[in-house]
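CORE FACILITY INTAKE
Project code: CF-77B
Contact: R.S. (postdoc)
Sample description: multi-component assembly, two entities in total
Requested service: structural model of the whole complex
Turnaround: standard
Below are the sequence entries exactly as provided by the requester. Do not edit them.
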Amino acid sequence: MPRSVYKGCDDFRQTSAGARERWLAPQLTRRQALMGALGGGLTIWANQAMPFARVFEAAEAQAASLPDARVLVSVFLPGGCDLLDTLPPIGAYGQYADLRGGMKLEAPPALGATGLGIHPSLAEGLNGGVKGLFEAGKVGFMPGIDYANPDLSHFHSRHFWETGLITERAAPGWLGRWLDHHGSRDNPLQGLTLSSTLSPVLATASAPVAALESPSDVALDVWGIGGQQERQMLAAWDRMSAVGARGDGPQAVHDAARLAKSVGDRLAPYAEHDDVDPLAPPVAYPEEDDLGRRLSRVAALVAQPLGVRLASVDANGEFDTHDNQPTELADSLRSVSQSLAAFQADLEARGVADRVLTLVWSEFGRRPEGNESSGTDHGAGGIAWVQGTHAASGVLTEYPSLTDLDRDDNLEVTVDFRKVYASLIEGWLGTDANEVIPSANAYGRLALVR
Amino acid sequence: MRGKVATLDFVVNGPPGGAQLRGPEPRVAGRPLDPLNEWGDNVLWWLDRMIRTTHPLQEKLTLFWHDHFATSEQETPLMLAQNRMFRARALGSFRDLLGDVTRDPAMQLFLSLADSTKDAPNENYARELMELFTLGTGYSERDVREAARALTGFTADWHDDGAVTIQYDADEHDDGVKTLLGRRGPFGVDDVLDLVTAHPNHAPFLVSKLWSFFVATPPSRTTVRALVATYRVNDLHIKPLVRAILEHPQLYRNLDAPDLVKCPVVYVAGALRTTHTFIKQDYASWMLTTMGQQPFYPPSVAGWDWGPAWMSSNAMRQRFTLGNYVVEFGRPRVLRGSAPATLTPQEAYALAWSAVGEPQVSAATRAALTNLAAHFFDDLDPRWRDQADWRGEALQSTLRHLLIVCPDSQLH
C-alpha cells in the first residue's frame, strides 16, 4: 500500500493520539481533571474535590516533612530507540557492519574499556554529554532490555512499559501505583508530568498528580490595563466566580473560574516577571530544545519545597527511525545528550543531585538488520539507562549477541524491564516492589543504586 | 415576536431555500482562507460558517455528528469532505448518514475499514459501529467478528494529489454466511447497517445521546420512550427528533439559569456571533485547541468528553483570554470618545452589555460589574474625572471583556 506519504508508521501515529485514550483507566479521564491543562497551565488529577488552597499547603508540608526525599525522573524516548547505533558493539564491529551496511556508524568512540562504542551524538553537551557522565561514573547502561515474546506494536509495548504490566487492559502507570501506595493524599505536585497532559506512567488510581508545562503560563491574562485597575478587574472576576451555583455544569464553571485565578496567584512566585525567571537554570541547556526546557523545570521544581517525588518527561526526538536513521538518530540523541548533561549539571549546581535518579527508556529496540530506506524496523532488545550521582555505573546487563537472533531475526532479550522497575522501587524509593510490580520477585534484582 | 411553534419551525428548518452565509467573507492577515493548505484555516472555515449561517442548528448538528462519528488526524481534504457530508446529512435520515459515514474515506482510513479483506478482516470499524455509533450495548464479540466479515471488500486508492477514493472489490468481500445479532445470512455492508439500526437498542441509544447535546439533565424514561417513538415513526429521521427535543418542557424549565456547559466550539463561535465579530485573525482557531477542542482532531474515536469535563482551571484561563482578543479585534472594540468617564456605573454597564450583544447575565454578575464600574476611578482625583476619557474607555473594555468571559457566558 502506498502509504509512504506518512513518516514513521501508522501505529506510531496512533500511539501518540486517539486510540490511546481508551488505555487509560476510565477514572483517569478528563472528567476528574479538577484543574485541567491544554496549552500551558497546571492540571491536577484527583479522585476527590480538593480545595486548591490546600494543594500548596500540602506540597509544602510534604516537602518539610521529607526534605531529603528521593526523586525518580522518567525520561521516555518515544518510538523505539535503536540499541546497535546507540551503543555500537565495536568488539563485534564486523558483524555490526554487515547488518547495517551503508548506514553503519564509522569509527564510533569507545565507551571506556567495555568493548562497546557510543553514538558520537551522546558525547555532545556539557562535560562530554552522556559519554562524559558515563566516564564520571554517573550512568549505568542496560542493553538488551525488553520482555519475553516482545510485541512490536508501539501502542502495546508502550502501554506495557508504562504500566509495568503485560496487559492490554487499562491500568494506572507503574509510578502512579507507587504513589497510590506511598504518596501523599493531597499533594498533586508529588507526581509531576512536564507537559500539558498526564503521562500514563504517572496515572494513578487514587493519589493526586499534576501536569504542568510552565509555571509562567498560569496567570489570567489581561491586556491593556494594569496595576490598580487590573486588580479591580480580577476582584470582580472573583466575586462573579464566588457565587454559589446549582447543578454540575454551573458548579464546574464556577469552580474552574475560582481555580483559574488562584492557581495563577499561587504560582506567581515561580513565574517569569519582567524577563526575570525565578526558576532560571544555573547552567546552559541546549537552545530551542523541548526536552532540555522540560528537564530544566524539573530541576528547578525539585529544588523548591514542593514535595516533587516522581517526574515524567518525554523526549521530542524521532526514535522511530524507519527511514534515514543516520541523520534522525544523530539529531535525537544529540538533544538527549545535551539535555541530560545539562540536567545533571543543573541538579549538582542546585545541590539536589544526590536526591535525584533518572531512568531513560524507550518502548522497544530495533531490528539488527537495516532496511532499504537506511532505517531500521521495530525490534526487540532495546536500551535503557540510569543516571545520577547515585546511579550504578557501567554496562549493567549482558549485551545481546549479534549472531544468535530470535526467530524473528531480532535481538534476544537479556533483561526484563520489570526487573529494572523492581530494582528502582526497592533500591531507590526504598519500598517493597511486590506492591507495585506483580510477582516482582520472579524477576530478580539489579544493583542500580550505589 | 414569532410564536413558539413558528420559532421552532424556523430553528429546525432554517430559512426557505436553505442556509446562507451573511456578512463579510473571512480573511486572515488580509488574505482569503485557504483551508486545504494553511494550518488552522480548516477550523476558521467552519467557525466562519457557524458565525455567519442563517441556519445555526445545521452547524450544531454537524458538530454533533463530528463528535458522534469522531474521525481524527486524517488528511485535510478528506476531513473537509466528511464535514460537508455531515452538514448535508445533518438533519436527515440516520440510516442514510450511516451509509455515507461507512463509505467515507476519512472514516475508512481512521478505523481501518479500507483494505479490510476477507482473508484479514479488521474489526476496528465493526466494533465502533456497534459500541459508539449505533448501539452502545447489546452485541457480543462474535457479532463484532461477524460484522467485520460482512464489511470486508473496501479498498483505498491513493492518488498523487493526496486524494483518496474508496472502491468496493467484490473479490475481497467475504460472501459466506454470517450470524449477526441473532440473524443468519450471507450479509453484506448494507445488511449490517440495516441490522444495527433495526436493533432495539439503537433508538434509545441515539435519542439519549442527542438529548444530552441539548439538555444537561438526563432524559427520564418516559421522555426516552416518547423520543424513541418519534424517531421510529419518522423512519429514523433526525429533524423530527431534534424538534421533539427542542419543544420538550424540560428545555424551558430553567431558561434564566442555563446549566449546560458550552463546549469550546460553541463558546467561541457564540462569542463571535453574538458580538457580530467576523473572522479577520486566526486566534479563534488555535484558542480552541488550548481550550481542549480542536475541530478535526477529536481525541479518540469516542469523541470529546462533554459537560462539566470541559471545565478546568486552565481551560477557563484560556476562555478568559478569548475576551482580550474579541475586545481588541472584534466589534466590541471601544472607540475613542465613545465611553466618557462621566457615565454612571449603571450607564457604563448598560453600554457594555449592549455592545456585546445583550447576553443573558445573572444578577450576581451584573452586581459585580456595576460595582467594578463604581470603583474603577477610586484612585483618581474626582477633579480629573471629566478629563479621563481614556479611563472610561479602559473601563468599557474591561466590562465587555468580563461579560464575554464571565461564568454565565460559559453556560447555555
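Facility notes:
- The first helix of chain A runs from residue 10 to 15.
- Chain A touches chain B through 63 residues (CB under 8 Å).
Invoice: internal transfer
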